Amino acid sequence: MTQLAPPTTSPETTGTARTAAAATAPATIDVAWLGEYLLGAWAEERKHSRELIKRPELHRIDGLGMADHRERVLGQLGLLVDWGVVHRAFPKSVGGEDNHGGNIASFEELVLADASLQIKSGVQWGLFGAAVMHLGTEKHHTGLLPDIMSLKVPGAFAMTETGHGSDVAAVGTTATYDEATGEFVIHTPFRAAWKDYLGNAALHGTAAVVFAQLITKGVNHGVHAFYVPIRDENGFLPGVGGEDDGIKGGLNGIDNGRLHFDQVRIPRDNLLNRYGDVAEDGTYSSVIGSPGRRFFTMLGTLVQGRVSLDGSAVVASKLALTIAITYATQRRQFTAASDDEVVLLDYQRHQRRLLPRLAQTYAMSFAHETFLNAFDGVFSGAHDTDADRQDLETIAAALKPLSTWAALDILQESRESCGGAGFLAQNRFTQLRADLDIYTTFEGDNNVLLQLVAKRLLGDYAAKFKNADAATLARYVAGSVGATAVSRSGLRQLSQSIVDFGSTARSVGYVRDEASQRQLLTDRVQSMVAALAGRLRAASKLGPVAAADLFNANQDELIEAARAHGELLQWESFTAALESMPAATRQVMTWVRDLFGLGLIEKHAAWYLINGRLSAHRAQAITDYIDDRLLPRLRPHALDLVNAFGFEPEHLRAEIASGAEQARQDEAAVYYADLRASGNAPVEEKALKAKKR
Amino acid sequence: MTQLAPPTTSPETTGTARTAAAATAPATIDVAWLGEYLLGAWAEERKHSRELIKRPELHRIDGLGMADHRERVLGQLGLLVDWGVVHRAFPKSVGGEDNHGGNIASFEELVLADASLQIKSGVQWGLFGAAVMHLGTEKHHTGLLPDIMSLKVPGAFAMTETGHGSDVAAVGTTATYDEATGEFVIHTPFRAAWKDYLGNAALHGTAAVVFAQLITKGVNHGVHAFYVPIRDENGFLPGVGGEDDGIKGGLNGIDNGRLHFDQVRIPRDNLLNRYGDVAEDGTYSSVIGSPGRRFFTMLGTLVQGRVSLDGSAVVASKLALTIAITYATQRRQFTAASDDEVVLLDYQRHQRRLLPRLAQTYAMSFAHETFLNAFDGVFSGAHDTDADRQDLETIAAALKPLSTWAALDILQESRESCGGAGFLAQNRFTQLRADLDIYTTFEGDNNVLLQLVAKRLLGDYAAKFKNADAATLARYVAGSVGATAVSRSGLRQLSQSIVDFGSTARSVGYVRDEASQRQLLTDRVQSMVAALAGRLRAASKLGPVAAADLFNANQDELIEAARAHGELLQWESFTAALESMPAATRQVMTWVRDLFGLGLIEKHAAWYLINGRLSAHRAQAITDYIDDRLLPRLRPHALDLVNAFGFEPEHLRAEIASGAEQARQDEAAVYYADLRASGNAPVEEKALKAKKR
């Protein structure tokens, strides 16, 4: 855990950081304790995965061509099978462990090896295999899962089409039941209905789970999943065709491609029939009566993709900040008060660039742990009511967008903070950023997901206030309703009544404390939702065009409300995580939490000011508090905070985080010291001129 | 110009956009006129460059390995030589045209072909060649430039070292004059002093302009440039060594690498001696007495790198938005009020994502034209005073950061707005983004550049108020000083006195007009600078450590003030550009300018609220005005606005902007219409259930 750690505060540290270090000496982080704590409920699975990731045969090789990269990653999947680490999530009946949380935890770490390896595993076992597991029944488990688990059958998850990504319910592919033969006929009626962007489709897949409109007896029962063989050793099977998606912005170790079907016949048994079935005579039946609910239930079983992308974004952010902050504590540039050059992280701007993002990463990490526990609760059956599933989906839709966007931002700021060195592939940022780019739009487009969250918040609000009068609504907005209006999706109700933040002259101490942060963050979500609900109420009295226009005219704010909700979830998780920390660690981590919470309030200061929740004086005080107190206080702990992420050199694999920069600085310093001591150092022209005067 | 243009408002346009279109029918853009206007003062050079760029041999090939890509780009440079388009900036005496603006304009367009081609040309002729031209004298021009221009001598620009990027004055490489032999000895004293990240250094360069500390007679005269042969057909010359930088985040068609020198001897004549010379006996002389001013004068001659990166960022942003907005007007997803799916750009969120970035791109484009004219003025000698050069450098330091950051943001938002299709290399975004990433930190790190701007603003402020009392300062902050305090660097002084924006109840009409936008934007820059000056005043009374700490404690705000200044420059350029537009075009373009200006004010609303420049009511009104008026108004003109950028299919080279998406939509629509007409369409289960009830 300490292999990379120079002393927490180097003796050369100048200026602000030195002052702050003196003021805050007692607070220290127990790095080993925090590191273990961060690994969470499935620490063993994570550690095991990190041990495997040390093996060079799993590491990404920069500059490998697409074809070689694809073959390498396929081979890596084979290694994972050989090492027996892909079975965790599958049923015990077929040799699995029914360990859903542990499976995702170990999977998330794979991003440290190569994001292509991670996502190709995700395609094979998390999408293709998971669809068979969750949407299929016993016959599919027994008949299909063993070959999927062993990689004997690599497969594609054929949901998205060129023409329909976010709106899966509208895919064009059809699966029409033919009573005469007892077969489904899979068909692609037009170009936009080609399945697209599918991992394993361009080269390696021999089967696919195909999502298609199930039509029997002249009725379309909506989208269902079908197991369809697509290739054998001679290439595509009759009626199946496709294309290679070619080079992508990243993840080029995965063979994404397109598939289309020309009246391809499959046995009736190939319908994955857990939620909908067709009898031999063509009669449709389902355990879920409502077609809409059935569709969302089927999709809901695939939430693990969003869980794991959220967790992977956290891991990648931790890696980026470990590299950037390690470098920032060794790299020097420009002199200020003395002849010694200043360490980058002693510059206020550099702190402003990296430390709030470090706080955000901690918040994301704690929120992800909450999320992963909720996921495991549902899929282990421990907490698996309809409400639990809906809550899980809402958490997923709120957190995955925030963390995947944040990861790109953190990777980019980290890269820029290392200058030209940050641009070299050998220092990891650029390749990881290229790979993670797509995380923002796959497994649910981030904007579309946030809109789902907003609809949920509005729905909860409407359910609560179905028959409420204006006065009740006003009281709710003012925060005086004590109930759990939107709490199911994780929103904690305020216990205090809202006070007028703007009217008093109390110091920043007021907004700094935990209760005030909670109040400000919670109030913003509630008020935005209430205001939107008020505006959208009129929709019920409008015609469909006008109602759609009204909704659309509020779309941007809906999405912002959902974002605020997600930020609150992160803040609450961080705050809850503080409780069990040892005192000295908790002290520092509370500053980190404050930097996150006050950073959110600062980011949304305009809202707080416009809505009278903060006075101008207090809004300014928050910025000053961050700049003058929190950043200098946290500066001496920055290395401990990244070292707690627990990466070893085989995970970092970045030259600038290897100690090489410190060695170069030391060598140069010795050279100049020796030169001065020798008496042979040239005189500076400037100094000479000053002397002459 | 119109080859890609479907009708401005498609008949299917629904909802908001339809309403807005009806309301604003009279305002139309003269696309041909605007397109020509955007090409600016060097339209012919740009057009010529764009014609060349149509040739497939200049186009980037995605997925080419690094080695092949480097060879291809070297070959492309040879084509540019053959076609006679690299000579423009060089002196007429050696066959050039002394056409500085035209050279940069044509160069900027090259990003459309391949950014590697652009930057490798920039290394060869804009850095290596330009250093010989601007820092050398007649003997160097005659002796060296012809082979540089013809690419007979590919060369590296060896300024940056592994240990010093932003702080060039502190490079470690030495050039010590040996009176005995009349030679300079070029030497790398330690690892951190290796030259690094140099294009042409890994493979192709046979010479380099090396920046080193000039030492003669025991005095270090600071950094000077030396022409140093480094390779012949057998590889590195004796004493020279190096390394390949390997794979980078982008620009992999360029052979970046490292160089180091072990007591390498070069003739005295190889000192590029325009600003500093050494006589045979070792006596140093310079036309510029102050070593500091001499250094900055030398660096200042190389400002063209920043000019061209600013322009390239504009071209890339235009390309990205042309692709994303074209797609957004054809792509449909989800239904709202009818069975027809909604066109993406009719969603408010999609408008919010793309249209403000389109406005920003126009602002960047007009600001760049101002910048390019200033550059040409200085380098043509038409406006070449010290003040002109300082202004040019300040404009460069303000605009290059804003536009290069914006380009990354615009490329990313464009990519995400196209979903999975946006991630495919064939649709351009991801590869361009990878290449342009480094534009934010090379040719001056963006944060460091903005700090230079802030220092200039503070310097101008201090010069103006050297002996001012507190009352005068207060009047200045209140805007009642009519003079040109900081106007040299482009800041326009307010002619109106500041009114209390917060105290009246006038409508959004107030902040909407041009004068109010100017006042708000200008006031912010002035007030931030004045406040910083006030706080930093104390530094003169402090010791060096405390003074450095004080400066550092304000660093973040200094950089924000510089950013505000850059944004104002963009806004002023946009506003000035409106003047000569035909009325109908000007009407639409004024909305675009308003979207840019009000967008800036919205972004900084917290500052305006905290500092009492906007009331809460007005701040909210600005957001509402953008959402409810400007976006719907501009929606019908979005395609015209990107078509005015004038790209042809050979420039776009993006499948999703080729009309393919429209063809797919049409085909699917026809399929469903035919199916309905045939009477064979399956019934929806949901519809069936509704009927039964």
From TrEMBL, chains A, B:
Its main location: other. It is found in: Peroxisome. InterPro entries: ACOX_C_alpha1, Acyl-CoA_Oxase/DH_mid-dom, Acyl-CoA_Oxase/DH_mid-dom_sf, Acyl-CoA_oxidase, Acyl-CoA_oxidase_C, AcylCo_DH-like_C, AcylCoA_DH/oxidase_NM_dom_sf. Residues 300-458 form the Acyl-CoA oxidase C-alpha1 domain. Residues 525-657 form the Acyl-CoA oxidase C-terminal domain. It holds the Pfam family ACOX. One of its GO terms (biological process) is lipid homeostasis. The keyword Flavoprotein applies. Belongs to the acyl-CoA oxidase family. This is acyl-CoA oxidase.
